[in-house]
């Protein structure tokens, strides 16, 4: 299976090419300019693989939560490319992608993915990654940092929500095994999740 994944939901901009289990990625933290960088990243990946967009089986994108303008960029590019070649579009949660990154970096299977939503709020979800793909334990949320409430057990915190609101980790310290506030969603993780979704129909 060949799948292109795109993500512009945060200050990171990334594209990834999934080919039968192997993943190549272009990733930059740029703040602004996602619309200018995204297609060149995708083109670089396809050229390096000796492929064109018509060789793809599907196109995936980070569906958020995240910044409105960024979400429009990834969704618009994914839909435009897919419509041109008659391929399906696979939306993937950016919180699930962040949880996958947290599980990979920490070795933990229970991840609290938390992103800064600005204006004093955070996007968050608790995910079980023990099966190789993040499964949300409950809903995705947008709350004040004080509204983050973990299910039972011990969790690893992933995402820049912990960096933006240090008091969050302090409040949950008895429930957290650690945190990585430097993690952002990546297209490579979106591609891996989308590949599983695609194969599952």
Number of strands: 11
> N-to-C SSE series?
EEEHEHEHEEEEEHHEH
Quote the beta fraction: 25-35%
Query: Structural class, judged by helices and strands?
Result: alpha/beta
How many alpha or pi helices?
6
Average pLDDT score? 97
Low-pLDDT stretches: none
Q: What is the first-to-last residue Cα distance?
A: 13 Å
Helix percentage range? 25-40%
Largest sheet: 6 strands, mixed
Summarize the structure.
This protein starts with a strand and ends with a helix. With 201 residues, the chain is an alpha/beta fold.
Secondary structure layout:
Layout: E1 2-7, E2 12-19, E3 22-29, H1 34-48, E4 58-62, H2 68-85, E5 89-92, H3 94-106, E6 110-118, E7 121-128, E8 135-136, E9 141-143, E10 155-158, H4 161-164, H5 166-171, E11 176-180, H6 187-199
Parallel strand pairs: 1-4, 4-5, 6-10, 10-11
Antiparallel strand pairs: 1-2, 2-3, 6-7, 7-8, 7-9
Helix pairs in contact: 1-2, 3-6
């Amino acid at each position: 299976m060949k799948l292109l994944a795109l993500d512009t939901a945060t200050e990171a901009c990334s594209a990834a090419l999934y080919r039968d289990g192997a993943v190549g990625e272009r990733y930059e933290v740029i703040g602004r300019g996602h619309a200018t960088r995204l297609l060149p990243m995708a083109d670089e990946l396809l050229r390096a693989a000796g492929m064109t967009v018509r060789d793809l089986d599907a196109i995936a994108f980070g569906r958020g939560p995240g910044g409105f303008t960024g979400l429009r960029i990834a969704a618009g590019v994914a839909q435009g490319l897919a419509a041109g070649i008659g391929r399906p579009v696979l939306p993937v949660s950016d919180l699930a992608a962040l949880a996958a990154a947290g599980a990979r970096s920490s070795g933990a299977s229970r991840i609290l993915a938390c992103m800064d939503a600005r204006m004093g709020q955070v996007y968050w979800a608790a995910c079980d990654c023990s099966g190789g793909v993040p499964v949300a334990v409950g809903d995705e949320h947008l709350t004040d940092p004080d509204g983050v409430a973990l299910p039972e057990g011990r969790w690893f915190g992933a995402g820049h929500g912990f960096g933006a609101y240090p008091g969050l980790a302090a409040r949950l310290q008895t429930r957290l095994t650690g945190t990585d506030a430097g993690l952002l969603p990546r297209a490579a993780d979106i591609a891996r999740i989308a590949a599983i979704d695609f194969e599952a129909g």
